[in-house]
Specification:
165 residues; 7 strands
Length: 165
């Protein structure tokens, strides 16, 4: 069932953030949990924990501390849209977030999107105002499990490390 969704999560960043990771818009599970990549089957937190060789953060506060400790900012490309569940391919009427807000308040060295849809939406709606090209990484969504193993994701996401040191 398709419905209008407004982004309810605040961006996570501080002045020391170096990498901005953008999804499309929080999934129903992420909105329910009140934090990014909240679906239990989403591999985002497993990938980051592997990159930094640490335990997977298990609650919203530890996830927030984790990304800030590692100079990562989290937000989404869209402020609102019409979407069926968590299906990015169903997105209509997209309204972008003001990504320049984070770029002006942080030391962002790379903008990274999690998945092709976030990348294409960023390119169309945000890049003209930010002037920053994004790097498209594979989606960590459970819907992408068949196309991309956890090991493939960890390899792809290693690009983050060169921007945060």
């Amino acid at each position: 069932m398709e419905g209008f969704v407004t982004h309810t999560l605040q961006p996570v960043y501080d002045k020391d953030s170096r990498v901005l990771i953008l999804g499309t818009i929080p999934s129903p599970k992420s909105r329910e949990y009140g934090f990014y990549y909240g679906h239990p089957q989403n591999r985002f937190w497993k990938v980051l924990a592997a990159l930094f060789q640490t335990d997977i953060p298990n609650d919203n506060e530890s996830k927030k501390k984790f990304v800030l400790l590692h100079h990562i900012a989290l937000w989404d490309v869209l402020a609102s849209c019409t979407i069926a569940g968590a299906s990015d391919s169903s997105i209509k009427n997209p309204v972008p977030n003001d990504i320049c807000r984070i770029l002006s308040e942080s030391d962002i060295r790379a903008v990274i999107t999690t998945g092709q849809k976030a990348f294409s939406l960023y390119k169309k709606y945000c890049e003209p105002s930010t002037g920053r090209t994004a790097i498209c990484l594979p989606s960590t969504s459970p819907a992408n499990c068949r196309n991309c193993s956890l090991e493939d994701l960890i390899r792809a996401y290693q690009v983050i490390l060169k921007f945060i040191s």
